[in-house]
Amino acid sequence: MTKRALLLVNRHSRRGQHSFAQAVDILNDLGFELIIVPIQSSEQLPQLVRQHGPKVDLVIVGGGDGTLNGVVDSLMDMNLPLGILPLGTANDLARTLKIPFGIPQACRVIAEGQLKYIDLGWVNGKHFFNVASLGLSVDITEKLSKGAKRRWGVLAYAMTALQVMSQTRPFHAHIVMNGERIDVKTIQIAVGNGRFYGGGMAVAEDATIDDQRLDLYSLELQYWWQIFPLLWRLPQGQHGYLPWVRTLEGEYIEIYTRKSQDINTDGEIVTATPAVFRVIPQSLGVFVPRNSLITLDPNI
């Protein structure tokens, strides 16, 4: 039976222009009947999903994590599954779901893989896949240019982080979780749903995208030298071993700040504090490789 799919490709993503025609040819050969809509801007994505959703069986999105973030709410509204073509710089959701970065292989996952229902994060009415954060990461998002991402790839995140760290100032916040209020002075609070973010850093050492919890960490640095062990620990999600990094986990979190702080979800600034975070368990179907059927645990 032919599958009808809406194909949305961000041609401005790192590999979007080059990979678009290749993806169309491969998906056609794999038996998909495609509705292809040119995308002028990411703001169009929700409208396109809602407009064409009743006519298709799934939505295939080619782009990076920001492009995927742009369609997640409309996919939930239309109750449509997602196929992913990783065409961005970091591709953290694809990395979490073990989706191959090669276009032929990713197309085959959509055609022959298994539909896996993953958790989503939710903050102030906006769903997200990977992580929502405030503080340092927002400064990085605002400074990180598309040109730098195209030129340097994942290294652009690290280079920009080093530039803005010296300029970032701590802020006061209080976190409410499990009936307890915790006051912090921090340069960043991150609330993770998936495993990877920011070009391959792990939210927590044991985080998965189907563990039905949110993982929070707060960077409470006091001295400049604390940056270096942090940079060593973050990629493995082992930052919780450092005494100046607070880690928490739960299903429902509230964050309040003295001055309103912007919140970035999957690399897009979408809301601000005060903020309420929730995990929405097993809420969105995504096509993943068959060898990811039993678990998305990174250690297996």
UniProtKB/TrEMBL annotation:
A single cellular component GO annotation: cytosol
Signal sequence, start to end: none
InterPro entries: ATP-NAD_kinase_N, Diacylglycerol/lipid_kinase, Diacylglycerol_kinase_cat_dom, Methylgl_synth, NAD/diacylglycerol_kinase_sf, YegS/DAGK_C
Protein name: DAGKc domain-containing protein
Family matches, as SMART domains: DAGKc
Superkingdom to which the source organism belongs: Bacteria
GO molecular function: ATP binding; kinase activity; methylglyoxal synthase activity
DAGKc domain location: 1-127
Stored PANTHER family: METHYLGLYOXAL SYNTHASE
Record-level GO BP terms: methylglyoxal biosynthetic process; phospholipid biosynthetic process
A Pfam family assignment: YegS_C
